[in-house]
Amino acid sequence: MSKFKVRKTYEEVADYLKEQIISGKYEPGAKLPSLRELGETLGVGQSTVREALSSLKTLGLITMKQGEGTFVTRHDPEEVISAFEALRPATKQEIIELLEVRKIIESGTARLAAERRTKEDLKRIEEALAEMEQALAQGILGDAADWKFHYAVVQASHNQTLSTIMMSISEAIERSLYASRLELYRTNGVPEKLYKEHARIYEAIRAQNSAEAAEVMLYHLRGVEEKMLE
Predict the structure, then answer these.
(1) Is residue 155 a contact partner of residue 62, using CB atoms and an 8 Å limit?
(2) Which of 6, 70, 83 has the alpha carbon at shortest distance from 38?
(3) Does the keyword RNA-binding apply (predicted)?
(4) pLDDT tens by residue, 165-202
């Protein structure tokens, strides 16, 4: 592999790795280099590599095995290309409409999560929050960690129907998170504000304050909506 000199964002790293896989550089079943090795080779931080791998995992292109590493799954090149095209940035109107849906669903989900969360649920939410903090420190979008956080909250509701609904619109949410963060991050202080809002959601769920959890989740989503309407 040649040194990665120009591309810096995780989306471009994901695209680069995708091309390596499709071209046969990494065949199905092959183990990818470690986060550190990929980061050093491509000239990016490990958090950037982690987000890139997360997007590839979402597409079903790779599998992450705890304690073993990351492996390439079997794939059809045309399906992979189509999947990447489906992850194109969402339009502003699509983002607004999706936020309207998310306000209805996720405020109630946060309420249930506060009432029903377990230690394992809190650990998942904490991990996502930590990844968001790392992304903030690295100056990257962190949209993959954002989705991970919101889905962890849904899982903490222990309502399978809600989980199914969120997964059914997960692709649209991931596209909108990427596009909205691109827009919102143009304003100084917004990245820090978004992180703090997620931290408040976590604290309310941890404290089992269902009313507060619903309120801060709604406040967060309304804030994003208002920014996108400016």
Answers:
(1) no
(2) 70
(3) no
(4) 998 888 888 888 888 887 888 788 888 999 999 999 99
How many degrees, rounded to 5, is the angle at CA 132 between CA 130 and CA 136? 115
* Global model pTM greater than 0.70: no
**Distance, CA of 112 to chain centre:** 22
CB count within 10 Å of CB 38 equals 23
> In this predicted model, what pLDDT tens digit does every residue of 11-37 receive, in sequence order?
788 888 888 887 778 888 889 999 889
Name the CATH code of domain 10-84 (choices 2.40.10.220, 1.20.210.10, 1.20.1090.10, 1.10.10.10).
Answer: 1.10.10.10
CB distance 205 to 113 below 8 Å: yes
d(CA 109, CA 115): 10
Which residue ranges does the chain devote to CATH 1.10.10.10? 10-84
Distance CA 61, CA 108 (A): 33
CATH 1.20.120.530 positions along the chain are: 89-229
* pLDDT score recorded for residue 2: 38
Rounded CA separation 138/170 (Å): 25
